[in-house]
Amino acid sequence: MKILVINSGSSSLKFQVIDSQTEEVMAKGVCERIGIDGIFTYKTHRGLTIKERAGMKDHKQAVDILLKTLADPQNGVIKDFREIDVIGHRLVHGGEKFTGCVVIDDAVIQAMTECNDLAPLHNPANLVGVEACRELMPDTLMVGVFDTAFNQTMEPKAFLYGLPYQYYEIYKIRRYGFHGISHKYVSERAAEFMGQNPGRVKTIVCHLGNGASICAVKYGRVVDNSMGFTPLEGLVMGTRCGDVDPGALEYLAKKENLSLSEVMQILNKESGVLGISRNYSSDFRELKDAEIKYNDMAALAREIFAYKVAKYIGSYAAAMNGVDNIVFTAGVGENDSDIRTEICDYLEFLGITIDEVKNREQGEAFKISDGASRVNVLVIKTNEELEIAREAAAVAEPILKKR
Length: 403
Ligand code: ADP
What we know:
The chain is α/β, with parallel strands linked by helices. The protein has helices spanning 59-70, 106-114, 123-136, 156-159, 165-171, 180-194, 246-256, 260-269, 272-276, 284-292, 296-319, 330-335, 337-345, 356-359, 384-402, and strands at 2-8, 13-19, 24-32, 39-44, 49-53, 86-91, 102-103, 141-146, 202-208, 212-218, 221-225, 325-329, 365-367, 376-380. The protein has an eight-stranded mixed beta sheet, sandwiched between helices. Helix 11 (296-319) crosses helix 13. The longest helix is centred in the last third of the chain and has 24 residues, at 296-319. The two termini are 14 Å apart. The structure holds adenosine-5'-diphosphate. Adenosine-5'-diphosphate is lined by residues 209-211, 238, 283-285, 330-332, 335-336. Adenosine-5'-diphosphate (ADP) is lined by residues 209-211, 238, 283-285, 330-332, 335-336.
């Protein structure tokens, strides 16, 4: 089966074509600056790369360009867009309505639209991508894979805040958790790598990118996730603050005479390691370079980040009454061996010992704990597109067989 994976944002649309049998990426790319000047980047498994300006006044034109390129006799990887069996859409917020992936139809679009309020930046942008594909490929099966779905197994004790219960009942204010597609892929890949049954292990996944979250997965089901009602809660991130006492925000707003939306702008865009390092950088590589040159604020930002990750790991080990695997993934988790060392230094009490030679390795999946360690510590490259393709293929197969 050939799966077109689409990740649609407000002004960009990322795509991959994956052969579900071989799991090979046949082509991938991104349409950026949609509605502005339109930049189209495209790469194929044969080594071809295209980067060009392309008029894209909206997402429909972006999808049109990518379909024409995919089927182009010279540059394409398929003969006709009808060769695409299914489109897998990455969808951010499914609220409590979606606990798994779904075939997208009018009812699903309606239900998703009802979740727009919960993710005003992401869901409408995802839906624009869905509508563009529906218009141009009305007969192609479409499957939606939600970032919140894997986290829907959390119990009320984990997902409820200490707020009056009616706010959950009326407005569905609760912890949803994000990065679910990545946490699912990585926790399952870890078990596969270790030769374990995923239904029998306790895993803590540390998805440490620009946005960062930690997830406790017990016997294949999410027990807790550090992101909350929005992706702002939890760890200190690139530019997001993570956990903050709400009382401090009221105090800040009064002192600086700020509106609620101005405070939110600070929490989302001006905080995290960027804010702590006095605007030096949100990029962990730049912070590391600065730390080496004795920039104390860059060093402090990285120190706070590592401390917070370790605290969450400790609390999730308690939440699951033990842990078998700890996995680092995403930009920082996969590449920053110093941060991994700093985090694991806090975890000696769990019987964790790291082999520093292995920790300097690079690759798709490798173990960095040594033979004496009581917990396996792994580094695994996340692959959300492959997870979407797998889930879309699993849903589509029985349906397409009947057609
Ligand atoms: P997102 O998908 O949330 O934008 P990514 O998973 O792509 O984030 O991660 C981006 C982060 O990864 C950036 O802060 C970047 O500095 C960090 N990163 C990438 N490569 C390295 C590296 N070699 N060492 C340290 N940090 C890295």
